[in-house]
Amino acid sequence: MKRIFLLLLALTTIFTFAACGTSTSAKPATTPTPTATLAPTPEPTPEPTPEPVRDQDWLRSLTPADIKTNTGDILDVTYNGTDLIVKQKISSQSSNKLTIDQNYYNACAIIRSLGGAEIRDLQYWAVADMRDGSEAKVISFTVPADTVKTIQTQQFPDNTLGNYVKDLWILPSLQG
Question: Which of 45, 72, 141, 145 fits 168 for a cystine, CB–CB 3.0-4.6 Å?
Fold first, then answer.
């Protein structure tokens, strides 16, 4: 009985080693080819998005949706052949200074949204809802052509725009 048990044990061990040997020999056949020998496929370089055409026809067809600002809503935009005139509705801020300054930031955002479009001046004016329910102009100014070009082509601190505008008008109640 011991001999049969030992024989079965020996056969089991032999079959176990044979089974391990079979799976080991089959493993190299399933190993994929090393990828280091394959040249990597380069990612296609995306074509640069062409700048939209910013000519006078494009400027004449501008809509309020084409212009981006930081706060408020563009109500109207008109290009008269040389100047861009923008009317914007704003909301009052926590202080009179912030209410005024938001317009300088908005004007710079408008100019940047034009890309390199050639305009002589940006005429900007903002309206707001008054306490009596009416709507009134609260600020207006003109950004001269040289400042427009500087904002389009260089780093420009938006909060200093008030130093470069002309024809500045501010609602008297905001000036105090």
Answer: 141
pLDDT of residue 121: 93
- The CA-atom distances, in angstroms, between 123 and each of 24, 75, 77, 85, 108 are 81, 14, 10, 5, 12
Strand partners, 135: 129
Query: Beta partners for 128?
Result: 136
Question: Helices 145-153 and 96-113 meet at what angle, rounded to 10?
Answer: 70
Rg (CA), the chain: 36
Indicate the SS3 state at residue 161. Answer: helix
Has this prediction a pTM greater than 0.85?
A: no
Residue 87: phi, psi to the nearest 5? -110, 130
Instruction: State the residue for tokens 């912030």.
Output: 98
d(C-alpha 39, C-alpha 79), whole Å: 55
Pairing between strand 166-170 and 122-129? unpaired
> 122 pairs with which residues across the strands?
84, 143
Residue in 154, 153, 162 with CA at minimum distance from that of residue 124: 162
CA distance 48 to 5: 79
Task: List the structure tokens of 108.
Answer: 């710079």
